């Protein structure tokens, strides 16, 4: 009897574990564009185009390679609008007596799929996702018994495990594990940032763009200027483009923000790595080869490898070890609604406007925009973690629950009480001024704090510090902030708190 092999939209590689030992003559691959998956959040239109188009290209490819494929294209009138319904129907139609799949990337679907064997009345084999460098169990074993989980130590394990950027004697190349201190330069236009890699949409992608315009018109963002890769070959070319043109400066300007450059020296590879078009380890190996060949400096390559081998693996481990409770965490007790300008970009704060507008156009913003601009503002303003998490899940082409949630709830909102990060990434306008050229173009004045035209980040920062004294005063990494705050004159502190209160009452007007 044949097996049904379900391939999800973020599993677009023939190296996926569900296809191991499969028989292309007998077994049937099932793929489906279903309403439930396309609408569980207000996904950016470009994200839907990317995934539907990449799925269609993948299905065509495997079919041409001799696989039997059942592919359900999206239509609002399709009878089956959930993955379970599609699989149930395929079981009835083919007489298959087993379902094989690879574990998915979010708790919601994971829970559903783990009940399928009862609901569908056939064995359902859910295989580990071997694209990750550490399995869930390996992460849990590493975490066991540790008082604090810190990415840096996990990252070193991953370096040892893969041998990436390691000497034959088992030491880190360059004599250090981490070159982060070299990676904090402001970018002033030189060297020029490379244009991002672009692929012109082919006919299949254009069809999907029309479909998204017709059926997902009310979703966030735009399909205009869609230029993402949708095949492994083009994603590979995007990787080459990054290594040739951006990697050499990736480290230096990793934390920089620009008023007129959306992409700077970032790789823009996360959408491809996360959906299976690129393999994360192969991406790291390509960067390491560039260092060995003298084509990129060590601070750039180590910094890049750390993001994938370290942060990416670490947040995934945190997610699976702590779900479903993790999603409900709100240790700072935030209650404020997400300001509407997160959806429109309609705010006088230049840095926020620029980050949100780039997000709307590109389904992309780089890490520092996500962390220190839109994230920092939500932290300082005390936005409910659930609302800001939903926003991040919706607006980025690379957003999946396993990676978005720990980054937002843990890293940005500190809502897990410091489980993921040792201190909140709270910062005043000074940080944004130091790392960007936004402030000179802003309605607000970054060097003012209490006046009507003062940068909102300034008073909100001190308000945050003051209102969370009980949460942070004993944190050794925050002690200096509290000493600075306590040293200020009482009238000054009062004025800052008053301004903070006023801002919080009317965030929408900012
Ligand atoms: C609030 C917030 C939300 C985020 N949401 C997501 C998300 O939904 N999906 C996502 O893939 N990344 C997310 N990140 C991490 C990071 O911002 C993106 O991976 C990165 O901006 C993607 O762009 P890039 O490919 O140009 O990355 P680069 O800057 O070129 O980095 C290289 C690669 O490292 C990996 N990486 C870097 N930082 C992280 C990180 N913190 N966690 C996991 N992987 C990382 C990505 O695979 C990325 O492609 C988030 C970060 C923050 C602060
Ligand atoms: S002045 Fe404040 S609000 Fe304006 S760009 Fe600078 S940091 Fe952002």
Automatic annotation (TrEMBL):
The keyword Lyase applies. One of its GO terms (molecular function) is lyase activity. Keywords: Lyase. It holds the Pfam family DPRP. SUPFAM superfamilies: Cryptochrome/photolyase FAD-binding domain (SSF48173). InterPro entries: Crypto/Photolyase_FAD-like_sf, PhrB-like, Rossmann-like_a/b/a_fold, UV-DNA_repair_photolyase. This is Cryptochrome/photolyase family protein. It comes from Marinobacter orientalis.
């Amino acid at each position: 009897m044949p097996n049904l092999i379900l391939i999800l939209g973020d599993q677009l590689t023939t190296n996926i574990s569900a296809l191991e030992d499969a028989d292309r003559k007998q077994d049937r691959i099932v793929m489906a564009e279903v309403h439930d998956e396309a609408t569980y959040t207000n996904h950016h239109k470009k994200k839907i185009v990317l995934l539907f188009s990449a799925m269609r290209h993948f299905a065509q490819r495997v079919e041409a390679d001799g696989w039997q494929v059942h592919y359900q294209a999206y239509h609002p009138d399709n009878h089956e609008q959930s993955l379970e319904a599609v699989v149930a129907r395929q079981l009835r139609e083919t007489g298959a007596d087993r379902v094989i799949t690879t574990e998915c990337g979010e708790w919601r679907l994971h829970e559903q799929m783990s009940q399928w064997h009862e609901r569908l009345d056939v064995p359902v084999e859910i295989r580990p996702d071997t694209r990750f460098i550490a399995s869930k169990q390996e992460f849990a074993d590493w975490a066991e018994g540790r008082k604090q989980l810190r990415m840096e130590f996990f990252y070193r394990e991953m370096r040892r495990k893969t041998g990436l950027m390691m000497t034959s004697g088992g030491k880190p190349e360059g004599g250090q594990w981490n070159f982060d201190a070299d990676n904090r330069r402001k970018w002033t236009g030189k060297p020029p940032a490379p244009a991002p890699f672009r692929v012109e949409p082919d006919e299949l992608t254009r069809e999907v763009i029309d479909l998204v315009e017709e059926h997902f018109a009310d979703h966030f963002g735009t399909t205009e200027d869609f230029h993402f890769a949708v095949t492994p070959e083009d994603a590979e070319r995007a990787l080459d483009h990054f290594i040739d043109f951006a990697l050499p400066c990736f480290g230096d300007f990793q934390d920089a923000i620009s008023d007129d450059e959306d992409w700077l020296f970032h790789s823009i590879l996360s959408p491809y790595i996360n959906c299976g078009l690129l393999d994360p380890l192969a991406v790291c190996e390509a960067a390491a080869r560039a260092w060995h060949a003298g084509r990129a400096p060590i601070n750039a390559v180590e910094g890049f490898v750390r993001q994938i081998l370290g942060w990416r693996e670490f947040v995934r481990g945190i997610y699976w070890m702590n779900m479903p409770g993790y999603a409900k965490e709100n240790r700072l007790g935030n209650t404020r609604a997400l300001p509407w300008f997160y959806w429109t970009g309609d705010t006088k704060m230049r840095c926020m406007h620029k980050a949100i507008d780039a997000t709307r156009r590109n389904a992309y913003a780089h890490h520092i925009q996500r962390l220190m601009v839109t994230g920092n503002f939500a932290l300082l303003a005390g936005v409910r973690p659930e609302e800001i998490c939903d926003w991040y899940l919706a607006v980025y082409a690379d957003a999946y629950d396993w990676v978005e949630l720990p980054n937002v709830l843990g890293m940005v909102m500190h809502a897990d009480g410091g489980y993921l990060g040792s201190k909140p990434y709270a910062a005043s306008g000074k940080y944004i001024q130091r790392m960007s050229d936004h402030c000179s173009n802003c309605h607000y004045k970054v060097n003012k704090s209490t006046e009507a035209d003062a940068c909102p980040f300034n008073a909100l920062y001190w308000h945050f510090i003051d209102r969370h004294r009980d949460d942070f005063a004993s944190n050794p990494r925050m002690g200096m902030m509290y000493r600075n705050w306590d040293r200020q004159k009482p009238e000054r502190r009062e004025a800052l708190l008053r301004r903070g209160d006023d801002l919080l009452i009317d965030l929408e007007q900012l």
